[in-house]
Amino acid sequence: MAQRILILNGPNLNLLGKREPGIYGSETLADVEKACGALGAELGLEVSCFQSNHEGELVDRLQQAGLEGTGVAFNPGAYSHTSIALRDAIAGSGAIVVEVHVSNIHARERFRRHSHITAVSRGMICGLGTQGYLLAIRALATHMKNAQG
Fold first, then answer.
1. Which of 13, 17, 21, 46 gets the highest tally of CB atoms within 10 A of its CB?
2. Domains in the chain, ordered, with CATH?
3. Active site (catalytic) residues
């Protein structure tokens, strides 16, 4: 069975390519999902994508991924700075998560510099645009392969 990776996106990422292109670029979420699917196929991974503006739906997906052993490339958007619920969903389910941010959250407003998600993630990729998703997929694939022995 192929390793599974979930590309999980939080609030406002449905507006990628339209929302503040000077910060987030011009690629759309559909472009990101297509690139992630292509890389997944190249690496022999089963890639699925989900985006929601609703915290509870993201919690449900994280719990499911953790219980199923699916790796998650997760861009929690603004919830990274506010959501203990998402942090607890990762920790409680044992989800294997690489946190992704299109912009460099450390070079932005002070309130964006702390993420509740980072402490329960394998790592964080930020500031590299949408390429961060592809790097997260590669990192998850390597981690999951090494964990299998």
1. 13
2. 4-148 (3.40.50.9100)
3. 24, 101
Question: What's the pLDDT at 55?
Answer: 98
For 119-144, letters b (16+ CB in 10 Å) and e give ebbeebbbeeebebbbbbbebbbebb
Helix (H, G, I), strand (E, B) or coil at 115: coil
User: Would you call 72 helix, strand, or coil by DSSP?
Assistant: strand
The residues that bridge with 50 in the sheet, in sequence order, are: 8
126 within 8 A of 23, measured Cβ to Cβ:
no
What is d(CA 91, CA 43) in angstroms, rounded to the nearest whole number?
Answer: 27
Instruction: Encode pLDDT of 81-123 as tens digits.
Output: 899 999 999 999 999 999 999 988 776 668 666 889 999 999 9
Q: Does residue 148 have a pLDDT over 90?
A: no
Which carries the bigger pLDDT value, residue 147 or residue 90?
90
pLDDT digits (tens, 9 = 90+) for 55-65: 999 999 999 99
